[in-house]
From TrEMBL:
Keyword Protein transport belongs to the record: no
Source domain of life: Eukaryota
Gene field: LOC107779499
Keywords: Hydrolase
Stored NCBIfam families: CECR5, HAD-SF-IIA
Gene Ontology terms: cellular component: mitochondrion
Family matches, as SUPFAM superfamilies: HAD-like
Entry protein name: Mitochondrial hydrolase YKR070W
Keyword Metal-binding: no
PANTHER family in the record: CAT EYE SYNDROME CRITICAL REGION PROTEIN 5, CDP-DIACYLGLYCEROL--GLYCEROL-3-PHOSPHATE 3-PHOSPHATIDYLTRANSFERASE-RELATED
GO annotation terms (biological process): glycerophospholipid biosynthetic process
InterPro entries for the chain: CDP-alcohol_PTase-I, HAD-like_sf, HAD-SF_hydro_IIA, HAD-SF_hydro_IIA_CECR5, HAD_sf
């Protein structure tokens, strides 16, 4: 990447703290790992010729599965700009606020990628991925033998107990919470094992007990990805788990979902945008005066998530809906209209820069 952060980076703006941008990732900048159109160029226009950043921006995604530091590197490679880990806000990023509550407890992390690494980085000391957790319970998944893709060796030999400080067997130690960090890879195994954990107070195979807390990183029904029509997201998995759980258990499933459109996500993005701005300003530029954003732009592809969230967050958020992802309509989205609808993220960035600079 040719772009860098420096103390001079905001000098070209007359009022550097007046605006910032939050970019959704899937369906706006990328589909899978493929940049959409000229999205890397759109990001590059936020840097000056020497590659220093002119405009504070963050990635505000409901996706995840890898630690923020690693995601920053991946995004930098795919989008060809320098990115600070601070600029990456994922669906599961707020889970770190729950660390103190579950610091030493056994917790189970679900989803694609490296869910246990994510939770370890947040400070959780006894976390097992659901792959590893399930491997302790013989025959917990009666369909395992038909799942040709399962690489048991990897789970058993390479990654076992990397993220646990306890010596007890999970078969006799209660799992105290479940975190769905990213999209479930094997719905049938995960629904089975989660029902086991949740019905028994965290001791699969034992008697019914109080449900441990369950947290989802987002509640997206669908996301864009590479296929022409949207794919089922974590919200769809939540519905499946909830329907099955409620059919086999007397008390309804209790859970908490994070991610957009929750207003606290946008509040936090505002704080992070200010940190991005301040982390790269000269001390004498900051000079003790209070700084604030006049406008924060949310550029997203999903009306029910990105646009609804920005609208609910209110001032200073301004929502821009692209046609490159979940939303493919001609006009605005009726149920939750955006402040502006554009074809692409390039168009959105052009609009912002021509209005602000
Ligand atoms: O799994 C990712 C998806 O649910 C949403 O990603 O970047 O569009 O918020 P994003
Ligand atoms: Mg999206």
């Amino acid at each position: 990447p040719s772009s860098t952060f420096s103390s001079r980076q905001f000098h070209s703006l007359s009022n550097p703290a007046s605006f910032g941008i939050a970019f959704d990732i899937d369906g706006v900048l990328l589909r899978g790992n493929i940049p959409i159109g000229s999205s890397p160029q759109a990001l590059k226009s936020l840097y000056d010729d020497s590659g220093t950043l002119k405009v504070p921006y963050v990635f505000l995604t409901n996706g995840g599965g890898v630690p923020e530091s690693k995601r920053a590197k991946e995004l930098a490679r795919l989008l060809d700009v320098n990115i600070l880990p601070l600029q990456v806000i994922q669906g599961h990023t707020p889970f770190k606020q729950l660390m103190k509550r579950f610091e030493d407890e056994l917790v189970v992390a679900v989803g694609k990628g490296e869910p246990a690494e994510v939770m370890s980085e947040y400070g959780f000391k006894n976390v097992l991925s659901i792959d590893e957790y399930a491997s302790y319970f013989d025959n917990i998944d009666p369909l395992a033998q038909y799942k040709k893709w399962t690489d048991k060796q990897d789970v058993n030999q390479n990654s076992k107990s990397k993220h646990v400080a306890f010596s007890n067997d999970p078969c006799s130690q209660r799992a105290q919470a479940v975190f769905v960090v990213s999209d479930s890879v094997d719905w049938s195994r995960d629904i089975q094992v989660l029902c086991d954990i949740l019905r028994t107070g965290g001791l699969p195979g034992k008697e019914i007990a109080h449900q441990p807390p369950l947290f989802f990183a987002n509640d997206d029904l669908a996301y864009q990805a590479l296929f022409p029509s949207e794919r089922l997201g974590m919200g769809a998995f939540r519905i499946a788990l909830e329907s099955v759980f409620n059919a086999i258990h007397p008390a309804a499933l209790k859970y908490t979902s994070y991610g957009k459109p929750n207003p606290f996500v946008f509040k936090n993005a505002e704080t992070v945008l200010m940190q991005v701005l301040q982390s790269s300003q000269d001390n004498n530029q900051v000079d003790g005066r209070e700084q604030f954003f006049k406008t924060l732009y949310m550029i997203g592809d999903n009306p029910a998530v990105d646009i609804k969230g920005a609208r609910q967050a209110g001032n200073p958020w301004f929502s821009i809906l692209t046609r490159t992802g979940v939303f493919k309509g001609k006009e605005n989205y009726d149920e939750c209209p955006a402040d502006l609808v554009v074809d692409t993220v390039e168009e959105a960035v052009d609009y912002i820069l021509s209005k602000e600079c």
